[in-house]
Amino acid sequence: MDSFITIRFKRKTAKRFQEFSKKHFKTHTETMEAILDFFFYNEISPKEKLGPTGRTIEAKLLKRINAVIAIMRDVEKTQTKPTAAMIQSLFETEQPNEKPLIVEKKYAEEKKEVRFREIESARFTTKGRAKR
Question: Residue 74: pLDDT above 50?
Answer without folding.
Answer: yes
